[in-house]
Design brief:
With about 675 residues, the protein is α+β, with helices and mostly antiparallel strands. Helices cover about 25% and strands about 30% of the residues. A hairpin with a 6-residue loop joins β2 and β3. α2 runs antiparallel to α3 (about 60-75), α3 (about 60-75) runs parallel beside α5 and α5 (about 100-110) packs antiparallel against α6 (about 115-125). About 40% of the residues are buried.
């Protein structure tokens, strides 16, 4: 009897433990759910993680739900554990196929494009029209091609703004002068008594910091931004305390729990709009936008910017149009397209009215954030919904016919990580943006980007037929944009001229006693700095010029196809010099009958003339002559340099050639077998 009583008691204790354990798991899941609903992802994720291990293995629905929620929390804060959590949800047969999309997005963010593509494909089986999934799959398949594309932009982490083991984001120039910067950072105060970690991200809360260039253009020490206590509450300064690394200072210690972030300025730098989030009774109540005016170097009392009648709607990431009459911002307000959307409101009578969603060309079911509007109306923003490299990518949207034309900024701006928060130095293509690329612990760093001047130029030399530089040559250049340049070459016969982008040029080289040489050059489509090479070889007017690469069939006068290039060069020379007439002569070597050689050479000269006429050269400008072997070559310095066994001024006649070895004789015979032209007149149709 005692044994039976003992067994009953043990079983009861076990059942009670199981019941209490089950109730405890459910209670903790409920607690995590509440924190998730108000955006406290870090704390919610930690609860889900601990609860997951306590859920029974055979309770797959609960286990799958907890794993998925854990993944959602970690995805929001870029925690690498998200991928494992989604994998656990899939293994436990999570019922909603959204888990495959989320897993794909995380893998995409990690640069695992092939694995991500599989997840997108699975999700698209049940959601074939989903824009985010289709865009993600497209990006994964295009990424190799995107990586091949070059860019002139140069990027590098900005050493003056970043601090080790902290995140520094969303820099903004304070006014059009671009000599001062304000950015958001979670660098820890030197006196840590008032600092705290965010329940959303699990890292120290963010505050505003600023720096200014000194007289020699260097950034001075970074200082915390001090804001007065606003009416009805304190946006104040997130990291209360003192010291060079501390956040802005407050009169009340409890103000340190507030968080200030992304800001923007009017063109004169005297008015600042910024994001502010203030916990109430230990819970974050969502972000709002505040405005503060500066006078005598101090920021005045911040005032909340009312954008919606519903005070529970979150707003942040303000950006002002150039004239200050339109405020772009980010919100999860009803009427959006999912996630965080970009909205705008217009200034009227001291109020911001007509909050309007920018529409589906900009916003997706994912997140669009960190807008920047430039003077030309172009909108820059970050999105993880449009096709990209992974995580948040930077995009440019150009207004066109009541809609937007969208461009991914590509590398080096975008990476597999998060890239966002871009700002520009005035109207230049230089500035800053934020990225966590290559950061194993996810720290955000501020990157500097520059667009080096694109330098296009052409250089070369003007020489005679023997390669000697013509020091008195002139070069004339005409562009189809109307530009005309004329210059004399340097003493060594070389030149260098700067060019413009997307222009077609005609270049004409001239020198006294020489024929003109015309060349064309185009910079259309040039994508980077480049130096074009263009040499000019000028033919003399006063002596015959041997035409290279003119070939005939053996013992015939038929031109071979290999002669076409040389013949076309002669056509070009005659077109470049429309007022000359020439004698076109053909010559043979010493081998064979003199009369037969003369007839052969006459027919060869006529073959060349016929080709020139067929290609548009007037017959009256051409005189064909066949000399046979009557006029052997007389060696000049260039021929002597090439063949030292031939003395300068030596005629390559039979007597000289007979004194040479067999190999040297063949060289001389080959030199004598030639086609030449010489200028007869330079006044054709001038009078």
């Amino acid at each position: 009897m005692k044994n039976r009583t003992h067994i009953v008691l043990v079983v009861s204790v076990i059942l009670l433990g199981i019941t209490l354990s089950s109730c405890g798991v459910k209670a903790r899941i409920k607690k995590a759910d509440k924190k998730y609903e108000i955006g406290e992802y870090y704390e919610a994720g930690n609860i889900y993680q601990s609860v997951y291990r306590q859920v029974k293995a055979n309770d797959k629905p609960t286990k799958a739900y907890v794993a998925f929620q854990q993944g959602e929390c970690y995805r929001h804060i870029n925690n690498t554990k998200a991928s494992t959590a989604y994998r656990n949800a899939i293994r436990n047969r999570y019922q909603d196929s959204i888990v495959y999309l989320r897993q794909a997005q995380v893998l995409h963010y990690q640069g695992k494009y092939a694995e991500a593509a599989k997840g997108y494909e699975i999700y698209l089986q049940s959601h074939p029209d989903d824009y985010v999934a289709r865009g993600g799959l497209f990006a994964c398949k295009q990424i190799d091609e995107w990586k091949k594309q070059s860019s002139r932009y140069k990027v590098a982490a900005e050493k003056d703004f970043n601090q080790r083991r902290t995140s520094n984001i969303a820099p903004r120039y304070i006014g059009d002068d671009a000599d001062a910067i304000m950015f958001t950072s979670n660098r820890t105060a030197t006196t840590k008594k008032n600092s705290r970690n965010s329940s959303i991200t699990g890292v120290p809360v963010f505050a505003l910091y600023s720096t200014r260039k000194n007289a020699i253009g260097e950034w001075e020490d970074i200082e915390p931004v001090v804001l007065e206590e606003p009416e009805g509450g304190s946006p104040g300064d997130a990291n209360a305390g003192e010291g060079e690394d501390g956040g802005a200072e407050f009169s009340k210690a409890d103000k340190a729990v507030a968080e200030t972030g992304v800001c923007c300025f009017t063109s004169d730098g005297k008015t600042m709009y910024f994001t502010y989030s203030k916990p109430l009774n230990g819970s974050d109540q969502g972000a709002k936008i505040f405005v503060s005016n500066r006078a005598s170097g101090e920021w005045g009392e911040p005032r909340e910017v009312k954008l919606f009648t519903d005070s529970t709607i979150t707003c942040g990431h303000p950006s002002l149009s150039a004239n200050g009459d339109t405020l772009y911002f980010v919100s999860d307000a009803p009427g959006g397209y999912g996630g965080k959307d970009i909205w705008y409101a217009e200034y009227d009578g001291g109020e911001w009215i007509g909050a309007t969603n920018l529409g589906p060309q900009i916003n997706t079911s994912a997140d669009e954030m960190y807008p920047t509007i430039r003077k030309d109306g172009s909108l820059y923003f970050a999105s993880n919904g449009h096709p990209g490299y992974g995580g948040l990518d930077l995009f440019k949207a150009v207004p066109q016919d009541s809609t937007w034309v969208l461009f991914n900024l590509g590398a080096p701006f975008n990476s597999a990580g998060d890239d966002f928060g871009i700002c520009f130095q005035g109207e230049t293509e230089n500035g800053f943006f934020t990225s966590n690329r290559g950061q194993k612990k996810g720290y955000d760093l501020i990157y500097r980007f520059t667009l080096p001047e694109m330098i296009l130029q052409v250089e070369g030399a003007i020489t005679d037929m023997n390669g000697e530089n013509l020091t008195d040559a002139m070069l004339r250049m005409v562009g189809d944009d109307g530009t005309i340049q004329r210059l004399q070459v340097k003493r060594d016969g070389t030149y260098k001229i700067k060019l413009k982008k997307d222009v077609r040029y005609v270049m004409l080289a001239t020198a006294r006693g020489y024929l003109n040489n015309k060349q064309t050059l185009s910079t259309i489509g040039a994508a980077d700095s480049y130096t074009y090479k263009q040499d000019f070889v000028l033919s003399p007017i006063s002596k015959p010029v041997t035409m290279e690469n003119i070939f005939y069939e053996f013992a015939k006068w038929t031109l071979t196809p290999q002669s076409e290039e040389g013949l076309n060069q002669l056509v070009k020379l005659l077109n470049d010099n429309p007022n000359i007439t020439i004698e076109l002569s053909a010559h043979t070597d010493r081998v064979g009958n003199a009369e037969a050689n003369k007839v052969l050479s006459e027919k060869r000269a006529q073959s060349v003339v016929d080709y020139l006429i067929e290609h548009g050269i007037e017959k009256e400008r051409l005189t064909p002559v066949g000399y046979g072997k009557e006029k052997p070559v007389v060696a000049d310095k260039a021929l002597n340099t090439k063949y030292p066994f031939i003395p300068i001024d030596q005629e390559l006649n039979e007597e000289f050639i007979d004194t040479l070895g067999k190999e040297q004789q063949e060289i001389c015979n080959q030199i004598n077998r030639r086609t030449e032209f010489k200028v007869l007149k330079t006044t054709y149709k001038l009078y």
